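Narrative of activities, Objective 1.

The group set out to show that a structural description can be obtained from nothing but a protein's sequence at a throughput compatible with the screening campaign. Below is one input-output pair from the validation batch, recorded exactly as produced.
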Amino acid sequence: MRKLIVLGVAVGVVVVTSAIALAAVPVTVSPADGPPKTNFTVKFAVDRELSSERWFTVEVVSAVKRNDCEYQEASAISYAPKGRRVAVVLRPVDKFRWCEGVYRGTIHVDHRIGCGQTGLDLGPCSERGPTVARFRFTVTP
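Output recorded for this entry:
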């Protein structure tokens, strides 16, 4: 019974931390919807110092996963002074058009970790950090 209480507290802390982080970075997306070849612009204010060691990743994923259209895309912001408003343009780069439907996006903080010895492939050299914002846009027919 004691283990269940501790687990419940840990889950509560995670939820509260996420809610606080999400409130920190307001996001606007323009346009909110558009046809498959639309470039969507995600704008937000940088709320922390960024560097080659810590950066924002803006990514979107569609519920529709097809091979003939772009169902996911990501872009990174590695430098911007704290407080600066930035804009990331998301384009359907590989397939030249988005899949129709709703795309859900996140902005999260990634940071560099040690990779091991030079020349060896020991896995990723960065890891995903906390999500600081969520957004969405819709691709229409």
